[in-house]
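Fold in tokens:
===
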Amino acid sequence: MAIQTMAECGPIGTGAARAVAFGGGGEWFMAWMVGYAQGLRDAGVDLAAADVTLGTSAGSFVGAAIKGGRLDDLGQALAALGANPQDANAELHITTGAPSQVRAQQVMGGTTEISPATLQAIGRAAMAAHNAPDAAYDASVQTLLGLTSWPTGHHTTATDCYTAESVIVGPNDGIPIAQAATASSSLPGVNGPTWLDDRLCMDGGVSASSTHATMLSGASFVLIIGMFDFATHPPAHVNPSFGIAERCNPGTADREAASLRSGGSTVHVAIANPDPTTNFMSAAEIGPAMADGRTRGKADAAVLAPHWS
């Protein structure tokens, strides 16, 4: 089965009682979402009970771990990386600093509008970046996830480098879950790009949305977990390698929530809103991010509980 674009696939939330969109944002946000999910679970709201989950970049890992029963395993693996940040890049087979990698990051960071042409320009730079071998990163992702099969109901996103189309991968597409997560987190100038069937793909967050939450249209209740909301929390400084959707079009999660509500869904939006100058790819940030997420999860549980029983 060929990988479908989101336009071809159509909404995946139809008929679901509960759906979750897990957004992107590097190691920091992966750790925050793990902590958030653990905090919710501590307070009686288990996101594993969601009927449908959609993960982008970091969210592709977290959603897979939650639906695959490995939330705590992912948390422990991240905590180990955070305890030894000097070894994290080697363990994840990440290399940075080559001129072609810097160029890809500069192209992405210099983007001020999102259009097929600008995304294709980032895609060309991503394809030309001399990153670590994709197979090595894929192997580290497999180790981190520890999953041998697709978790039921989970889907991931990616962006076709050539066409700039957003694509979606699920349990029935014949792609291993680790490969799907590798593609979804193939940040230009850092990892990948990664082949998904006959499409060479980069990070799913290199698009007009970092959560793609509108794909969950039709679900009764949707939880959107995003990293930034620059409309309500405008930053003085921005790390240009992250939040391209929010940087170019602030308030994306709220717009997606409004669209879902207009279709009949009840929606809760949880935004982390960290200091945007944070080094979100630094393993040293994992511990504090996870602790902050856990606190937030416990606080949000009362709002989510009526929709989760």
Notes: The longest helix spans residues 286-304.
